[in-house]
């Protein structure tokens, strides 16, 4: 899955940049020469920004208002900004060490630094992280379309509200239809840039969700029907203190996009634009996250659910409340459906690379491509049918695989420094990222286990 690229990477128009082992699923002529996709001269700046932003802004946005319920608005917003800055730093490390080692995939950088074992560890973490995220997507789709129950309360789904309860709009049936009719066709694309238009639409739908949520909250705030929520966390004992750390994996997971950075980078017409693309995407996503967290928590307060979409099934106290509820839920479900193939893209490539490291590239073997795709879709479907809460899935993937992909692995690459390019700043920053990731994740896992035993 690793390419050995020329160190002089300027423009795709000047020289093809991919080879048979590239993670971008290139076509290959029979004479053995590498080539880019026919008629494809490289991805544009805007297309790359949309694809990377879509990778970032997925289901994580739905759980962020619930983190404000734990941290309060001040600490919550500061933590979102802080994790965004750390994400930018870790991606910068990945790109710089990729160029130095002539590696054009995340796995290639890990392989250069730690050999086959390092590459396998990354692949396993990407598989765990992306499987968890895709299961979360499907859980949310099921919650919105067919309804969900929490703490003895049933939140009706859109189809249940529109048509009443029938056998065909049950959770399993709806997820099966969504998988077969929508998700399966979308995950059949073999090139990231093929998804640039769906990515642009998904970002637009996320913005629609944010604008409507903010508008409702502002109207209710000026009408005096809601009050400003807590600014700081409510700490009464050591248990409530430990609970603060459980939100870290959720926010970390919301920013993980590292597994698609190289795929987008390798398809760029001008690879020198990658750093501005990353910063533009992260800035856009941070604004969306902060706005959603603030207005979502302002709107629902301590009644904010782990999946805030489930809150949009009641009278919001504003004109056309029912219509706005449906618009919010439908737009974000469509957004998740459009994000799904981008996350699936990296999942499929890493699973194939882990199981069949010596086989020819996945794009050249249609049978293997179809079998892996169908198997992964089936696993995601089963996971969404049996895992009850997105918070549980986010905490597990965030405290394990996500922190490794986002911080521990990039920091370890800089500390290993096989190409001798690490600065003192890189070393100090890497040590800080590893310390922060290990400590926060360990406390979060301990807090979750402690809460589980108390419930039992």
From TrEMBL:
It is found in: Membrane. Belongs to the amino acid/polyamine transporter 2 family. This is Amino acid transporter transmembrane domain-containing protein. It is a multi-pass membrane protein. GO terms for molecular function: L-amino acid transmembrane transporter activity. The chain crosses the membrane at residues 70-89, 120-140, 172-189, 201-222, 242-261, 282-301, 330-349, 369-387, 393-415, 427-446. Keywords: Amino-acid transport, Membrane, Transmembrane, Transmembrane helix, Transport. Its main location: membrane. InterPro entries: AA_transpt_TM. PANTHER family: AMINO ACID TRANSPORTER (PTHR22950), SODIUM-COUPLED NEUTRAL AMINO ACID TRANSPORTER 11-RELATED (PTHR22950:SF458).
